[in-house]
Amino acid sequence: MPRTPAVPLLLASALVTMTACSVDWPETPSVADQPSTPTPAQSPSLSPSPAAAPSLTRAQTEAALITETDLGDPWMPTEGAATWRDGLLKAAARPAECQRLLNTVYTDELFGTATGTRAVVALDDAWDGAQLRYQVVTQRPAEVESTLAWLRSLPRTCATFAATTAQGAVREGQVSGLELPDVGDAREAVRLTLTGESAEGEFTLTLDVAAVRVGADALALTNGGIGEVSAEVTQGVAELGAARLAEVRKRGRAEV
To answer: Which of 11, 84, 173, 185 is 20 to 30 Å apart from 17, CA to CA?
Structure first.
């Protein structure tokens, strides 16, 4: 019988804890609370103006990460890269955008090389064998928007494709859209599946890929494995992560 993911149950309490902690922060008015002179209209895709906010420090970026403490059982610090990463993600695929997807999730660089600070954490699901890799980066908003647009296109360009491993095994790939909660300034997610045969029989790798922009910063996560992979976990982590990143950004402005 499928188990109920722990993340949605912990999400509300985690957000309450974050809110409670915020009362100890300096009560300096935020930029939004201060009088301002009129400015020309800005592009909706890049609003509110992230360029005006200071970049996150390394410590702030790390503070915005999600950890096993937030998620609870069965999540724990990773014991190393999942065995399926080399065996399945290092493969040749067509068209080129599908190859880019495999390369991106293998290198864990959804936004490319970070132009600012970057912090990463990896967690393992001790029950189902899934692995969650989560990162927070300071990146140019236009570059993040480009990544989001690319993710949005994948259910069309990579609806079905073939991937061939170095050993010559052919896997059937599929990409479908994955809905995220209405968090951050912009967001996108997809679900990638790779199906094939092994000595133990047929298997399917399921990998959720999600990205959220919060001002001039962004979070990215992958949640995948050969066993059960819950979209609800992916959605819950994205929601919790966006809220935490927003709080860290708010605190950073107050401390300037």
So the answer is: 185
Question: pLDDT (tens digit, 9 = 90+) per residue, 208-238?
Answer: 999 999 988 999 999 999 988 999 999 999 9
User: What pLDDT does 190 receive?
Assistant: 98
Per-residue confidence band for 254, with pLDDT thresholds at 50, 70 and 90? low
Nearest to 110 by CA among 223, 201, 23, 21: 223
Q: What is the pLDDT of residue 197?
A: 87
Q: How many helices (H) and strands (E) does the chain have?
A: 7, 9
Which are the contacts of 203, defined by CB distance < 8 A and separation ≥ 6?
Answer: 195, 196, 197, 226
Indicate the SS3 state at residue 75: strand
Helices (H), the chain: 7-21, 58-63, 68-71, 84, 96-107, 141-157, 231-255
DSSP structural state of residue 222: E
175: three-class secondary structure by DSSP: strand
Residues 108, 133: Cα–Cα separation, whole Å: 8
**In Å, how far are 21, 52, 145, 186 from 47, measured between CA atoms?**
27, 11, 12, 10
Long-range contacts of 154-158 (CB under 8 A, 24+ apart): 154/97, 154/98, 154/101, 154/190, 155/190, 157/95, 157/97, 157/98, 158/95, 158/97, 158/98, 158/101
Instruction: Read off the amino acid at residue 206.
Output: T
Burial of 57 (0-12, 13-18, 19+ CB in 10 A): middle
pLDDT band per the 50, 70, 90 thresholds, residue 54: low
pLDDT digits (tens, 9 = 90+) for 63-122: 999 999 999 999 999 988 888 999 899 999 999 999 999 999 999 999 987 677 899 999
